[in-house]
Amino acid sequence: MKPESILNLIFWFQNNRTDHFFRTHRNVYATWISEIALQQTRLAAALPPLQKFLDCFPDLQSLAVANEEQVVQCWQGLGYYNRARNLHKAARYITENHSGSFPNSVEELKKVPGIGDYTAAAIASIHFNVKVPVIDGNVKRIFSRLHRLDYNPAPEKLRDILTHIINHVQEPGEFNEAIMEFGQKICLPSSPACPSCFLQEECIAFRENVTAAFPPKIKKEKTAVAWDIYLFTRDKSHIGIIRIPEDFPFLRGHMGFPGYLTIKDNTFSIGIDMDVQPKAKLSGNFKHTIMHYLISASVFVVPADSLSTLPDEILFIPIAQLGATFPSSFMLKAAAFLN
DNA sequence: AAATCGGGGGC
DNA sequence: GCCCCAGATTT
Ligand code: SF4
Q: Among A213, A238, A265, which residue terminates a domain?
């Protein structure tokens, strides 16, 4: 990147930045939570649940004293629930090892559960003025096009280039935010706004008219799977739920409905013994995607007293409590069939 | 180095 | 419907 382009980028950012709620009154706690929430998640999708999470846990102490299940529940709608579990661990880790205030070096930040290269660089540069570059999806995409190279995974050479740039910048945090917001608003993942881009001249992919081919896209196989869900009702007001076991492919440890998932020839069960599979009438179907799994879900409503046996660990709760008990969107979609 | 781990906005 | 995102951790 030419020195002039770096200045243009910062100037563009100063005039076009969006003042999101999580960074208007800057504090390191809110930055941390928002950076974690935005991992692999588009801004528009993350904002409402992020606002809810910050309302629920406004500071490090409130997060540290909560229990893990509450924290995961408040992560509702964001997915990748280990991020929530790590937030909770991290709050306790910082409380115990750093007297409740964030460490200010990349090295120490990376020891915090859930904080890796990217998040450590973001926090260190934005809040402690450390000259360290962030390397996220935006940065890799932008430089992949500028250089017409595949930067995924990011080679050491890219880090060197960025480190050199940021060493010549006054405010590293501002530069890091600038390049990410440039990626989010101008050098978009698809259909980048090249006609209005101030980096055109030095952008090799643009000059060679191959921006659509960079970064190279990797397409991954999708797998169609079937998931049968059983809604065991009691007294028309209560519903049977159970903890999803640790050997399940996803949503492990969440509360959910009993059922079983079939992936190719493998069956994963949640509380259901296949041999005593209840006779039930199909109440409806829905589709949902988790990772590369295309799930066709079938929902069966079964009055619990019509069955001779039930899973031992099943718990009956008021239907109205489901929204505060299920973190996952998948189970909440199934719950909608109770109406 | 490669697999794992959710979800929804926007095209 | 499909794509891909302000990644981290485990294997
Ligand atoms: S010219 Fe297009 S592809 Fe190149 S940096 Fe600008 S927006 Fe991105």
A: A213
